[in-house]
Structure formats: C-alpha cells, structure tokens
Design a protein that fits this description.
The complex is a heterodimer of chains A (302) and B (407). Chain A has 302 residues and is of the alpha/beta class. Helix content of chain A is 36%, strand content 26%. In chain B, helix 7 runs antiparallel to helix 14.
Chain lengths: 302, 407
C-alpha cells in the first residue's frame, strides 16, 4: 500500500504541492488527476525519491521508501526519453538490469514484452528509428520489465493513436491482474475511467476529491438525463417540472442536468405525455464531469 | 552486478558502437601515420629550400670548402662551377633545384663569399661556421685541420640525480613528457566536450529523469565518467601503440642512428613512468570530466553548452602551460607546489616524474590529493546532477548551486 500523508513541496517561491494525501491500496489501479501544473508530476517524483518532500511522509508497505523499495518501482515519465542510437533490445535490457535483473533474464523477458507490445522484429533497430507510438511502447517495456511492485505512469496515453492507447491499456490491465499496483495520471478521461478503480483529483497542489468512481458519483449533486427527440412539447413538459435549460449534444439529444433527488418518474411521465418519446435515459455523471466540478471549472455533468 | 558496473558496461558498449568513437580512433591512427611521415617530408622540403647550393670559384678552393660544408651537413653542394652567371636569376637556381648560388674567393688573404639566395632570410652566420678553419688557414698559414681539432672541446656530462644515463636520454625524456602531456591535454579537452554533450543529450531527451528515478545520481555519474575515462585511455593507448609501430618510418628519413622510437624509448621510459602516466591520466581525466558533467547537467539546451564550457577549459589550458615550465624547471618551488594542486597536479606531477627524479612521498601525496579531489568532486557533482538533470529554463544562480550542495 502506498500512503501519501500531508506532503508539501515548494521550489523557491512556487508551492508545487501544498498539501496532498491519499492512499493507494496494493494491487489497485489508482488515478491521479489534475490539470497541468496541479502538482501530479512533482508528487510522482517525490514518490520515486527524485527529490524529497519539504514535509509530510510517503510510505510503501508501511515503511519509508528506500533504494531497495525504489528498485522495485517502475516509472514512465510524461516526457519520453530514449537513447536514440541504442538498439531497442539493448535499451530494454539495460533498464531491466538497472532494476536488478541479470543480463539473460532481462533479455528473455524483453523478447516476451516486445512481442506482447507488438514490437517483435524491431529488436535490433535503433530506438530513434521507431515511430513515436512505438518509442512509447519501448519505454513502457523498460518500466515494466522487472515486474514492478509499483508502476507509476505519468500521462501514458499522451500522443498515442487509439490503437496504441488500447495496447497500453491492455498492458495496464495485465499488470494489474498480476498484482502490480499502478498509479497513473492522464488527461484522457475515458481511458483513465476504464482503467482505474480509485482516483484522487488534485488542483493547485491540493486534493479536491478522492474515492472510487462509485463514491465520487455518489457525492455528485446532479445526474444527466438524455432525452430524444428534441421537441418543443417535451421541453415544455420538463420546464413545467422546474428543470433547468437543457443543452443539445452532438447527436441532437436534449441533456438535462437534474438534481440527484429529482423526481425522475414524474419527469418520465410528463415526457411520455408530451409527445413521441424515443429515449429517456438517466445517466451517471462521467469522470470528466466530476473532474470539472472538483476543479470548479464547469459544473454541468456533460 | 552493482549500478555503477551496469552503467559502466552499458556506456562502454554504447560508445564502442558509436561511429564517432570508431572514426575518431581511426582518424587518430591516420594522423599518427601522417605525422610519422611528416619529419621525412618536412626534412626533404627544408633541404630543397635551404640546403642545396651551387658553389662557384677556383677549383681547389671550391673543393676544400665543399668538403668542410658537407662534413657538418650545413649545405649540400649540388652543382660546382667555375663561375656563376653574371646575373644569377631564380630561373637559373630553379633549374638546378638550388636554394642559392655561392661564389667563393680569396680577397686580402681571407675568404669572401658572394651569396645569391632565393630567400634572404634563409642564411645566417652559424651555417658558415664550417668555413672558419679554412678562413684562418688563409689568414695565418696554420692548417685548417688544426683549427678544426682545436674547436672541439672534449666534455663529459655526469647526471647527479641518476634519472638519466646521458644527455640524449634526458632530451628524449623532455620530448616524451611534452608529447604525453599534450595527449592528456587533448584527451581532456575532447573528453570534456564529449561528456558535456552526452549529459546534455540525456537531459534534453528526458531520459535522465528515468535514470535518476532508478539509480542514485552518484552511481550514474560514476559509471558514465569511469567509462569515458577508460575509453579515452584505451584510445590513447591505441594511438601510442600506432606511434611506436610507425616510428621507423618517422626516423628512417632523418639519417639518425636510432632505428625507431621504440628502440630509443626502451631505456628511457621506466615502468614507473608508464604507471604514473596511466594514473595521472585517469585522475586528471576524472577530475575534469566530473566537473564538466555536473556543469552540463545545469544546461537546458545543448546550444547553451558553449557558454559554460569556455570557463571550464581555462584550468586545463593553465595546467598545460604550467607543465611546459615544469619540463625545464621541474624542481622550482612554485612548480613543486603546483604538482600538489588539484586539477593542475596531474599535468605538472607527471611532467616532473618524466623529467626528474621525484621523491616517492611527493608522488604519493599528489596521488592522494587527486584521489581526494575526485572523491569530493563525485560527491558534490552527484548533488548538482540530481537537481540539475531535472532543472529546465534559466541557469541556476551561484546561490542556488551552493544551496543544492548544502542540501
């Protein structure tokens, strides 16, 4: 279990992390969300021991993180970096060895992961010759070759096409199934929503919301209701029940953002009575809506 | 396998496979081959430009003068004529491949030379010393052979520090000292640039972040610097070996008795000097590489390397210049003091070892001072490296760097 307790960190006059605390249970996939400059990367770097917190504690399995524990961590930073002229296989083996694997074991594992990631046949190519997506996969292989206890992925889907993003997502699921604890950040909400079982949303160096998706949803004050078709009579029926003005989504559906305790049965009856109703769908708020609300950016549950 | 060893072996393999290293090593061998031929080529060029003369004058006088001139190898008489043309022209001299026409005559009981050189600056009094006995014979009637014998003073040189058996060995040692110090200078200059570029590349490619998250910055720095020093030493070893193998070419055209540099070097270079060179090469290389690596970690863009590399090169240049003084004044108090001064010591102490008998305690003290400097440099550079590798934007102020070192 990773426990971050009241951690603070400043760089000169800039307070990058004001007060962050969260618990990441072992074997879970944990999402650390926040806008650019929220302190996610700083937080991850402190967990990895790249620099220490000014105050607060970070523990792994109940103990302060030392070099031995850190060797069992894996890290994929937001900014991608590879030795451009080094061969793909050598690069992965090098990082495997830095994490304590012997040469032969690292080589065997690297071959397996290259195949899993769809990179077989590229073993002897220079890293710099690969496409951006494939370079990202090589870097992921470097981070996971030693089957880390804790894998930290900072924006793992950034710049990837949907196919490669899905490959990374599959890897995350595979590692989670093998017991690896994953801490990841991303701006791709639909991917992180699918991958993570718990989240902490931070803004300006502080925790704004935390919990499982169900917990976050339970605390969300509104629910979106999708209605098709967009008819004046239906709009009038909703207005008569005190519903706020809807917005129309890309598919032409009316989307009402209604209080969680609204009488949805009454609304449905009014809508049916108002015209030929095709769709009346009460939805759960998306992670994106929860994220937006937590950061005070926009409170509509779109 | 520990972290340092893993970084060390990976860096070695990475550099051995890089084209730059292979090309630089081969270019070095070609350069040494070219330098081996150079003395013969230069000597040939110098001879054709200054030594070849056309000698004119009465036959008997001409022959005696030519004999004396050629005995001392001052000139090579390539044509002997009774008279030079009324107007000696460059075309005339070129036709004979000569640098000058010299007409010799006796006037007022002494020799008189009329010289028609292609290059007015190419002739001086020293070159005509061989004719002094003949001049005196004409003036006094004493045979030239007696003057020649009187001008030779028998002398014996007795070494007092038992370092060298004779003056030739001492002179050769001076040359070796200069050569090896120059190699150390070149290796550090080139190595420093390479180290800075490599660190900047790791930083700009952001691979540094993963590395310092995985292993300690000191281990990373140590592995990188040790690998660079080892390869630099290996490269220098290859070049020196090429030089020794190609040395017969270097000396064959110089008409000297020695058959090769190796033959001359064998009795002059002692094993202690080879050990000293390797030791001080490594210590000097490490000291400068560590400082350069730490400095490069503070730079955000490779374009900014130039602004910090120039001041860092100053101590290297200073050390090299002080070593030149050490060749001729190895026991001057200030030279001795510099032989214990970090960063300068590797140059100066090695030079002293090569040209004079240095007490063992002084060698040990210099090694100790430099080893301690390397250890402190690794410690301080590791701290700077940890922070510097993740620092982007403007260069940190001296105050920030000091704060980092204290952290």
């Amino acid at each position: 279990m990773l426990v971050v307790d009241h951690v603070k960190r400043s760089f000169g006059s800039i307070k990058a992390v004001r007060d962050i605390g969260f618990t990441c249970p072992a074997g879970t996939v944990f999402g650390l969300l926040g806008p650019n400059g929220a302190g996610k990367t700083t937080m991850m770097r402190m967990i990895l021991g790249i620099f220490p917190p000014d105050s607060g504690t970070i523990t792994w399995q109940g103990r302060p993180i030392d070099r031995n524990a850190r060797r069992r961590f894996g890290y994929l930073p937001e900014e991608r970096g590879l030795y451009g002229k080094m061969r793909v296989l050598d690069h992965i083996v090098y990082f495997g060895r830095l994490h304590g694997l012997d040469e032969f074991d690292a080589r065997d594992r690297a071959v397996v992961w290259l195949k899993t990631l769809g990179l077989e046949g590229n073993e002897k190519r220079a890293c710099g010759e690969l496409s951006k997506g494939n370079q990202q996969k090589v870097q992921l292989a470097c981070a996971i070759l030693h089957e880390p206890d804790l894998l930290i992925l900072d924006e793992p889907f950034s710049g990837l096409d949907p196919v490669n993003a899905e490959v990374i997502l599959d890897c995350i699921r595979l590692l989670a199934s093998r017991g690896t604890t994953l801490l990841l950040s991303s701006h791709q909400m639909w991917q992180i929503e699918n991958a993570c079982s718990a989240f902490t949303i931070i803004g300006a160096g502080e925790v704004r919301a935390a919990g499982t998706l169900a917990e976050l949803r339970a605390g969300f004050p509104t629910r979106p209701v999708r209605v098709v078709p967009d008819l004046p009579a239906i709009r009038a029926a909703f207005a008569s029940c005190g519903a706020p003005e809807p917005h129309v989504d890309a598919g032409g559906a009316l989307v009402y953002d209604l209080p969680v305790d609204a009488d949805f049965g009454r609304l449905l009856r009014y809508a049916v009575a108002a015209g030929p109703l095709e769709t009346f769908q009460r939805e759960e708020p998306s992670l994106n809506a929860i994220y937006m609300r937590a950061l005070g950016t926009r409170e509509t549950a779109a | 396998m520990n972290e340092v060893a893993i970084v060390f072996s990976a860096e070695i393999m990475r550099k051995l496979r890089s084209r730059v290293f292979i090309v630089a090593t081969l270019l070095g061998i070609f350069a040494i081959a070219a330098l081996s031929y150079a003395p013969r080529m230069i000597e040939g060029m110098i001879r054709s430009s200054t030594d070849n003369i056309v000698l004119a004058g009465p036959a008997q006088l001409r022959e005696r003068a030519a004999t004396l001139m050629q005995e001392r190898k001052d000139f090579r008489v390539i044509a002997s004529v009774d008279h030079l043309p009324p107007y000696v022209t460059a075309k005339y001299l070129d036709g004979l491949h000569a640098a000058a026409g010299i007409a010799i005559a006796v006037e007022g009981g002494r020799l008189h030379l009329d010289i028609y050189p292609r290059d007015l600056a190419a002739f001086n009094d020293v070159q005509f010393r061989s004719l002094v006995p003949l001049n005196e014979e004409l003036a006094t009637g004493v045979p030239a052979s007696r003057f020649a014998a009187a001008s030779r003073i028998e002398r014996s040189v007795h070494p007092i520090d038992a370092k060298f058996a004779d003056a030739g060995s001492a002179t050769f040692a001076h040359g070796i000292a200069f050569g090896l110090i120059f190699i150390l200078y070149l290796a550090i200059i080139m190595g420093s640039q390479g180290m800075m570029a490599a660190v900047a590349e790791e930083k700009t490619s952001r691979i540094a972040e993963i590395l310092v998250a995985t292993i300690s910055p000191v281990s990373l720095l140590t592995g990188k610097v040790l690998a660079a020093a080892t390869l630099a030493l290996a490269q220098v070893g290859i070049w020196l070996a090429s030089g020794l193998l190609l040395s017969p070419l270097a000396l064959s055209g110089l008409e000297r008795n020695a058959t090769s540099v190796a033959a001359v070097a064998a009795p002059t270079i002692q094993p202690t000097e080879i050990i000293a060179f390797v030791l001080f090469f490594l210590l000097g290389y490490l000291e400068f590489s560590i400082v350069n690596a730490a400095a490069a970690s503070l730079v955000s863009r490779t374009e900014d390397l130039g602004s910090i590399s120039a001041p860092l090169l100053m101590p290297v240049i200073g050390a090299f210049l002080i070593a030149q003084f050490a060749i001729v004044q190895p026991n001057a108090p200030w030279v001795v003091a510099f032989s214990f001064t970090p960063f300068i010591s590797p140059f100066v102490m090695f030079t002293r070892i090569a040209v004079t008998a240095v007490p063992l305690w002084q060698m040990a003290l210099a090694v100790g001072v430099n080893a301690l400097t390397v250890a402190i440099a690794f410690y301080a550079a590791g701290k700077i490296y940890r922070v510097g590798m993740l620092l982007y934007g403007k260069l940190p102020s001296p105050k920030q760097i000091i704060a980092t070192l204290r952290a």
